[in-house]
Automatic annotation (TrEMBL):
Origin organism lineage: Eukaryota, Metazoa, Chordata, Craniata, Vertebrata
Organism: Labeo rohita (Indian major carp)
This protein's name: Ephexin-1
Compositional bias (Basic and acidic residues): 68-80
Residue ranges, annotated region (Disordered): 1-23, 68-87, 550-577
Domain PH: 346-459
Annotated ranges, domain SH3: 470-531
Length: 577
């Protein structure tokens, strides 16, 4: 940490010939001398100090991340009139800043001594102070992230006792390219800290984010894609290597780790790149429209979104290929064989349902003998209808159909007996015939999930956010949930979701506002957003981001073929690492 701060100071000194420093190494003051600077601006810059943000942050990133998400939930709860951990009534966004003063939070920009001494808090508009806080949080959270990475390196990666229990290949499996990740964070943090040292009134941070995302953040993609193997091999090593297991337990229980697990450090890079996108998104919501800061925020957000998508797609692609190979090994084709493995194919849903045969009378409905179990494999472009073998290890393919040729009919309006039943119609099956299957599921939610998976264009109860409905139902996640099936959506604390469908037995189909991802999740992990103003604000912010990005894309398309304008990118302050 000290080395990073020293490098930053050195880089700041060399960056601009107009920067002068005092001789006191314990209180280095930066003074930028430019012709035409206003007295207020000179006062701000003269009060700017080497803030040592890296040294002052004592919160590990895991603590910051959990606390910040809980604060978002508390803020929404208070606006909904629900009980919170605090007391009293505070108006947003002041509440957000008040909450960030709590334990395990990062410091506020307005609480810096340099800010207090500058007089800025008396002259700036409240919305500009909120924007300063949003930019400052991006910087301090990066410092917290780097602090956790450094602990991963010094406490685990460089621990000779632990390392000696592992083979060279296992070391690679566990730590992958984490050192490249650290270098990227170090460069990034140097430039962010230098920006604040230039002037305590932060001009921008998204230009720095964009440049680093373009030039240095590719390392996140390879690390995240490798994460599935990392987790799998960590579990294997724990089972097979008793000495490693013992040493790891000792290291995890030491005070400096603060009760956090080794795996919580391994997943930091993906958590950070996704959180960084949300922090930039938060800045984009607050900057002036059609300003240079908005332009930089849009560029940074687009690049981070691309990286996050590549991470997700890389992980999915590797998992999907393994899954297809595994499924194909279990299939036995009765007549016409269908190739399952394809680069453009992935599993959407699988599971057992009951097929009903015979006349649809009340008597036959009650007879269990008329229900026969079948097992469905639904891919993005293909449905396989199979029968499980007596051993349960093989599946005999009875029929197949292109997904685009599937139709469904819900039978819930035909009486309680058919509440969990639906008709699946294959317009053109493997024998080029139209056939229908009457199917029954264990619950109403299972039925709806199958219907929406089989026929995705079916209209949902509520419309998508893209329709811009002013008061559509929204929920906020209060408990993280990891998807258990392909049609489910993993959600994190504080995620805001637009509801498309729900069932009476505890499931919701939702669309996450910040990335548009859809899927099912249990009702128990979310709370309904009651305040209409909060819902409207969430939708408005979502639309603003979409419109800003669409406007930027349109401008780029219109300027194709013209000579590009000179870039306004800053000059990096870090030396070659």
């Amino acid at each position: 940490m000290e080395e990073l701060s020293e490098r930053t100071t050195s880089a700041c000194t060399m960056q601009d010939n107009d920067i002068h420093t005092t001789a006191d190494p314990d209180n280095i003051t930066l003074r930028l001398v430019r012709n035409g600077d206003s007295p207020q601006k000179m006062a701000v810059e003269n009060s700017c100090r080497n803030l040592n943000i890296v040294k002052s942050v004592d919160v590990l990133y895991q603590e910051y991340r959990d606390t910040s998400k809980q604060q978002e939930i508390e803020q929404r709860r208070q606006r909904d009139g629900l009980p919170t951990t605090g007391s009293g009534v505070t108006a947003a966004p002041a509440l957000q800043l008040q909450l960030r003063n709590s334990t395990h939070s990062l410091s506020l920009w307005q609480n810096l001594e340099a800010v207090k001494d500058s007089g800025l808090l008396k002259t700036l508009e409240p919305k500009e102070i909120i924007l300063q806080e949003a930019m400052f949080e991006l910087v301090t959270s990066e410092a917290s992230y780097y602090k956790s990475l450094e602990l991963l390196e010094t406490h685990f990666l460089r621990n000779s006792v632990l390392v000696n229990t592992l083979s060279q290949s296992d070391m690679h499996f566990l730590f992958s390219n984490i050192e490249d990740i650290m270098k990227a964070s170090e460069r990034f943090l140097m430039d962010l800290e230098h920006r604040i040292e230039e002037s305590i009134l932060i001009s921008d941070v998204c230009d720095i984010v964009h440049t680093h995302a373009v030039n240095h953040f590719q390392v996140f993609i390879s690390y995240v894609i490798n994460q599935a193997y990392q987790e799998k091999n960590y579990r294997r090593i724990l089972q097979e290597n008793a000495v490693f297991r013992e040493k790891m337990s000792i290291l995890e229980n030491q005070p400096k780790v603060k009760g956090l697990t080794f795996t919580s450090f391994l997943i930091l890079p993906f958590q950070r790149i996704t959180r960084l996108k949300l922090l930039v998104q938060n800045i984009l919501k607050k900057v002036e429209e059609n300003s240079e800061r908005e332009k930089n925020a849009i560029l940074a957000h687009q690049e981070l979104e691309r990286i996050v998508k590549e991470c997700n797609e890389g992980v999915r692609k590797m998992g999907r290929t393994e899954e297809l190979i595994s499924i194909e090994k279990t299939l036995e084709f009765k007549s016409k064989s269908v190739p399952v493995i394809s680069h453009s194919r992935w599993l959407l849903k699988k599971g057992e349902v009951q097929q009903m045969s015979g006349p649809k009378s009340t008597r036959t409905m009650r007879s269990r003998k008329l229900y026969h179990p079948i097992y469905l494999f639904l891919f993005n472009n293909l449905l396989l209808i199979t029968k499980r073998s007596s051993s349960g290890e093989k599946y005999q393919v009875l029929d197949s159909c292109s997904r685009s040729m599937l139709r469904t009919e819900d039978l819930e309006d035909q009486g309680q007996m058919l509440a969990c039943a639906f008709v699946l119609k294959l317009l053109e099956n493997q024998e080029d015939r139209e056939v229908s299957y009457m199917l029954k599921t264990e619950s109403i939610s299972d039925k709806l999930r199958w219907i929406y998976a089989l026929t995705p264009n079916r209209r949902t109860r509520f419309l998508s956010t893209s329709t811009h409905q002013p008061d559509s139902p929204q929920v906020q996640c209060i408990q993280s949930y990891s998807s258990q099936e392909p049609d489910e959506l993993s959600v994190e604390m504080a995620d805001v979701l637009h509801i498309l469908e729900y069932t009476d037995d505890g499931w919701m189909l939702g669309e996450r506002l910040h990335d548009g991802e859809r899927g099912w999740f249990p009702t128990r992990v979310v709370e309904k957003i009651m305040n209409a103003e909060v819902r409207a604000q969430n939708l408005k912010e979502c639309q603003r981001i979409q419109q800003a990005q669409e406007g930027a894309q349109g401008a780029r398309a219109a300027s194709r073929g013209r000579r590009p304008a000179k870039s306004s990118q800053y000059t990096p302050t870090w030396p070659n690492l």
